Amino acid sequence: MKSQKISNEPKRWYDDACGTAHALELIGERWALLVIRELMFGPRRFGELRAGLPGISANVLTQRLEGLEAAGIIIRHKLPPPASVQVYELTPWGYDSEPIIQVLGRWAVRSPGHDPGQHLSAASLMLSFRTMLSPERAEGMKAKIGFRFGADSFVARLRKGRMEISRGEPDEPDFVIASDPMTVASIIYGGRPIADAEAAGAFHLTGDRALAARFVILFPLPTKIVPSKID
Predict the structure, then answer these.
(1) Do the beta carbons of residue 194 and residue 212 sit within 8 Å?
(2) Residue 38 in contact with residue 49, Cβ under 8 Å?
(3) What are the residue ranges spanned by the domains of the chain?
(4) Cβ distance 65 to 53 under 8 Å?
(5) pLDDT tens, residue by residue, 17-32
(6) Which residues are CB-contacts of 180 (< 8 A; sequence separation ≥ 6)?
(7) Fold for domain 106-215?
(8) Which fold has domain 19-96?
(9) Nearest to 211 by CA among 154, 135, 142
(10) Tell me: the pLDDT tens digits for 97-116?
């Protein structure tokens, strides 16, 4: 029985039936997976996507959005009034790609060539929390946390060793962090003291400071690999 031809198929680079090969045909073009990352917490406008990916050109972003839409990974639609603007959003199948991004992230940060000092978007930081959270360290801890990065806000709910994160303002949070993604990453992943970032005026914490101090050590990075040498 012949299989039906699917319209808007992605480019066939490999002529290989392996699912991994087809995955690369779907999301292997430059920037594609990062566009998906930026949409992982809900719909975004074109300009918001560009702000989260400062190295991408408008032309390339347009191409990636069109390709991902043709593949069934994202959809575009108009928000209801009063917003009435076009946004891009992951399909349910698109949201299913989060574990792929998480596994790739955990694998790649073990590389000695990984530079944590490069640009980090708000969505990337939030996704890193769900990726790097240590269930052992978070055991028995419960918290509702607000994050404000300029006009971009998130609420995180930590419970039972897991984190649920969504865009928006938290209702009665335990503590709120107002900062920028790079500063927060320097504290959580770089070991920078909270007081140091506060003194520099780059980090503002309100609420339960003791709980916040526990929170920032919940995300240990995996050990870097030691490159093998061939004698």
Answers:
(1) yes
(2) yes
(3) 19-96, 106-215
(4) no
(5) 899 999 999 999 999 9
(6) 149, 150, 202
(7) Nonspecific Lipid-transfer Protein; Chain A (3.30.1050)
(8) Arc Repressor Mutant, subunit A (1.10.10)
(9) 142
(10) 999 999 999 999 999 999 88
